[in-house]
Amino acid sequence: VQLVETGGGVVQPGGSLKLACLVPKFWLSTYDIRWHRQAPGKEREWVATIRRESDNTYYADFVKGRFIISRDTGKNTVYLQMNNLRPDDTARYYCNAYTYYGQGTQVTVSS
Questions:
Q1: Which of 40, 46, 47, 105 has its CA 20 to 30 A from that of 79?
Q2: DSSP SS3 for 90
Q3: Residues 39, 27: Cα–Cα separation, whole Å
Q4: Taking residues 70-95, what's their average pLDDT?
Q5: Which residues does 24 contact at the CB level (< 8 Å), separation at least 6?
């Protein structure tokens, strides 16, 4: 089982990045998909969820209004559009479905 995150990188404060999570076929109709993140020395924290059936989305307060989670069923991919990035958004971002996690992709926000 593999979830593969891509799209991380280094960006200046105020900039944007779009992460992608490729999931196994049919998982988008089977599982809710979540993004989490973990900064050095901190615990992993939940960022956003997209529901499997309703397409409803949910966000942690610290990303509301800045991040958007979406999915493309035809591409088996979930996205996290991150706008107005701040230095405290620096973390490794992980995609999660059920008990499965990907390896993550590093996001660094720095001037």
A1: 40
A2: coil
A3: 27
A4: 96
A5: 1, 2, 3, 76
Q: Is 96 exposed, middle or buried (0-12, 13-18, 19+ CB in 10 A)?
A: buried
* List of E strands, the chain: 4-6, 9-11, 17-22, 33-38, 45-50, 57-59, 67-72, 77-82, 91-97, 100-101, 105-109
What tokens does 110 get? 């720095």
Token representation of residue 65: 């209004």
For 23, 82, 97, 107, the CA distances from 43, given in Å and listed in that order, are 24, 20, 19, 16
For residue 50, the tally of other CB atoms under 10 A from its CB is 21
The dihedral sign for the CA sequence 76, 33, 37, 47: positive
CB under 8 Å to 75, separation ≥6 — which residues?
22
- Residue 89's contacts (CB-CB under 8 Å, 6 or more residues apart) are 37, 63, 82, 107, 109
pLDDT in tens, 11-41: 999 999 999 999 998 999 899 999 999 999 9
End-to-end CA distance of the chain: 37
